[in-house]
């Protein structure tokens, strides 16, 4: 870890399913953290481990040299940037690790840079467990100087990080990744359902898949709970559907036909209609129930 990181004051905005373990990992690595969340009580687990609670997003920025932001969607990310802006100034860095579209990220970048601060988008690949384990993957783009400055922090929270170029590149890469993931999960849900209807054992299906070329950690992790009809949220279904929608919008903008992602998105929307918004995205399997 670079010695210069030791004196960098860290701010964190967002204390949700991802933000809390990410902030905790920064604390465990010896970084002082000032945290803010719209609902202050959500910060309690981080404050209990030594973080300082800020009264506002702007105060979190005022008391920090670099600020990480992890919130749920583009609207929340933009609102946070607007609230944080009064606390930003030259020499500070604003790192948004939320999953948003490139247009929103570009708007946030302009707002942040307008204060004199540097901006980096760095959406993460990974959900609750990788966040807890410090095993996220950061897809960064924006100000290279800021990327180099926060690399030690990214290494605390993740197992890999990539610099992809100008603002928007990280956002687009994340949407591609989550589109593939969402389509894979929808297909897996179909396979489990078809297996059951064919009178076959679904646990045997998991074993067969685990031994072949289509094996993936996601199937091994989610499959047993899907068989039980249990969907403890690691990555909420509403966020997966949001990412499918954003990926499809990107495809339309770039004139890329995406029939598989489009079909999967419709499955997530059906599951939402069945009250599965806040369950894990593996709850997409309920879309196939009759």
UniProtKB/TrEMBL annotation:
Pfam families: NAD_binding_11 (PF14833), NAD_binding_2 (PF03446)
3-hydroxyisobutyrate dehydrogenase-like NAD-binding domain mapped to chain residues: 168-286
Tagged with keyword Magnesium: no
Ranges of residues in domain 6-phosphogluconate dehydrogenase NADP-binding: 9-165
GO molecular function, one term: glyoxylate reductase (NADPH) activity
Catalytic activity: glycolate + NADP(+) = glyoxylate + NADPH + H(+); 4-hydroxybutanoate + NADP(+) = succinate semialdehyde + NADPH + H(+)
Residues annotated as the enzyme's active site: 174
Annotated Gene Ontology cellular component terms: cytoplasm
Keyword terms, alphabetized: NAD, NADP, Oxidoreductase, Stress response
Gene3D superfamilies in alphabetical order: N-(1-d-carboxylethyl)-l-norvaline Dehydrogenase, domain 2, NAD(P)-binding Rossmann-like Domain
InterPro entries assigned to the protein according to its UniProt record, in alphabetical order: 6-PGluconate_DH-like_C_sf (IPR008927), 6PGD_dom2 (IPR013328), 6PGDH_NADP-bd (IPR006115), HIBADH-like_NADP-bd (IPR029154), HIBADH-related (IPR015815), HIBADH-related_NP60_sf (IPR051265), NAD(P)-bd_dom_sf (IPR036291)
Keyword NADP appears in the UniProt entry: yes
Family: Belongs to the HIBADH-related family. NP60 subfamily.
Function: Catalyzes the NADPH-dependent reduction of glyoxylate to glycolate as well as succinic semialdehyde (SSA) to gamma-hydroxybutyrate in vitro. May function in redox homeostasis and play a role in oxidative stress tolerance by detoxifying glyoxylate and SSA generated in glycolate metabolism and GABA metabolism, respectively.
Protein name as it appears in the record: Predicted protein
């Amino acid at each position: 870890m670079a010695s210069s990181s030791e004196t960098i004051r860290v701010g964190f905005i967002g204390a949700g399913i991802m933000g809390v373990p990410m902030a905790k990992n920064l604390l465990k690595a010896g970084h002082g953290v000032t945290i803010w969340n719209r609902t202050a009580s959500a910060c309690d687990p981080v404050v209990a481990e030594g973080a300082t609670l800020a009264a506002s997003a702007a105060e979190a920025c005022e008391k920090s040299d670099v600020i990480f932001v992890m919130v749920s969607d583009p609207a929340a990310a933009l609102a946070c940037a607007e609230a944080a802006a009064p606390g930003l100034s030259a020499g500070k860095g604003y790192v948004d690790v939320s999953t948003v579209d490139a247009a929103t990220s570009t708007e946030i970048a302009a707002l942040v840079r307008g204060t004199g601060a540097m901006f980096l988008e760095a959406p993460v690949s990974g959900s609750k467990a990788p966040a807890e384990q410090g095993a996220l993957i950061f897809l960064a783009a924006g100000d290279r100087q800021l990327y180099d400055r926060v690399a030690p922090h990214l290494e605390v929270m993740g197992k890999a990080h990539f610099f992809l170029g100008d603002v928007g590149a990280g956002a687009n890469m994340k949407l591609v990744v989550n589109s593939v993931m969402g389509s894979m999960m929808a297909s897996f849900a179909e396979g489990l359902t078809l297996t059951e209807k064919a009178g076959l054992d679904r646990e045997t299906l998991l074993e067969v898949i685990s031994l072949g070329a289509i094996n993936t950690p996601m199937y091994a992790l989610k499959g047993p709970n899907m068989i039980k009809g249990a969907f403890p949220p690691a990555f909420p279904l509403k966020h997966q559907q949001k990412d499918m929608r954003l990926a499809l919008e990107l495809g339309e903008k770039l004139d890329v036909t995406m029939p598989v992602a489009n079909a999967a998105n419709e499955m997530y929307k059906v599951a939402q209609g069945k009250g599965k918004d806040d369950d894990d995205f593996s709850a997409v399997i309920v879309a196939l129930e009759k």
